[in-house]
Write a structure and sequence with these properties.
Blueprint: E1 12-13, H1 21-34, H2 43-46, E2 56-57, E3 69-70, H3 73-78, E4 88-89, H4 105-123, E5 133-141, E6 159-161, E7 167-172, E8 177-182, E9 184-186, E10 189-193, E11 196-203, E12 207-214, E13 225-234
Parallel strand pairs: 1-4
Antiparallel strand pairs: 2-3, 5-6, 5-13, 6-7, 7-8, 9-10, 10-11, 11-12, 12-13
């Protein structure tokens, strides 16, 4: 018999998926029973680093010209043999909801108001009106032929509650925490503030299409410009979002 040496990386299953779905859930439940005061650490957190306690290192598989990696939380717990670039299957943010801050009293009040407005939206199906609760369906970036002068990012509004003609309730981010602000409809635009407005492209009984305009105070852009097209659909069920 001849033994042939070889090396291989095992694929990490990081959430309940595929053939390990049931076993993953059972194992997680048993761990929670034993360690009641502890939380599941999502993969995205484990492969991140913490400033001040991490160090840079070279993997044994790296070539001499490669940049050193920054030590991850997993590597700090289990050693440098845990490669930060291994393949994985599943949702890298699975379990993140357990780390989110609970809604405060004001946010709970707004959440209940959105729920009521969703019921109002459901009762008005078939009517063409912008004053409904809308949920983000899709989006696409628009071409920008200019130099923005740096890196920038946008947090999209996942739920847009326009039931009131004056006050807008928005839900965005991991916490799904609602917030309220004033708005106005002016010249076919939803105007939120001096730096942000939505150009209303189309309103039907089931969809709202808008163009997001933002004022970026750097680079070669002197005033607001269209950056993203957003398509919202009417929200008629809670869908576990609130």
């Amino acid at each position: 018999m001849r033994v042939i040496p070889y090396s291989a990386d095992h694929v990490a299953t990081i959430s309940p998926v595929f053939e390990y779905e049931a076993l993953f859930v059972q194992l997680q439940a048993k761990i929670k029973e034993r360690f009641t005061a502890y939380k599941f650490i999502p993969y995205s957190i484990g492969v991140s680093s913490i400033k001040g306690i991490s160090h840079r290192y070279m993997s044994e598989d790296d070539s001499a010209g490669e940049n050193p990696h920054k030590n991850s939380i997993y590597a700090g717990l289990f050693g440098l043999k845990v490669k930060p670039r291994c393949m994985y299957r599943g949702d890298k943010n699975y379990g993140f909801v357990d780390w989110l801050k609970q809604l405060n009293d004001k946010e709970l009040e707004l959440s209940n108001l959105v729920k009521e407005n969703i019921r109002i939206t459901a009762s008005g199906l078939g009517k063409v009106s912008i004053h409904k609760v809308w949920k983000l369906k899709s989006w696409k970036k628009l071409p920008l032929q200019l130099n923005l002068g740096g890196m920038w990012g946008i947090d999209f509004i996942e739920i847009l509650d326009l039931t009131s003609p004056k006050n807008l309730i928005v839900i965005a981010g991991e916490r799904k925490a609602p917030d309220i602000c004033t708005y106005r409809i002016e010249n076919g635009n939803l105007v939120f503030n001096e730096n942000l407005f939505f150009e209303i492209k189309q309103v039907t009984d089931a969809e709202l299409t808008v163009i997001m305009h933002i004022n970026i105070p750097f680079g070669t852009l002197g005033n607001s410009a269209p950056v993203v097209e957003l398509v919202y659909k009417t929200l008629t069920e809670l869908e576990g979002l609130l």
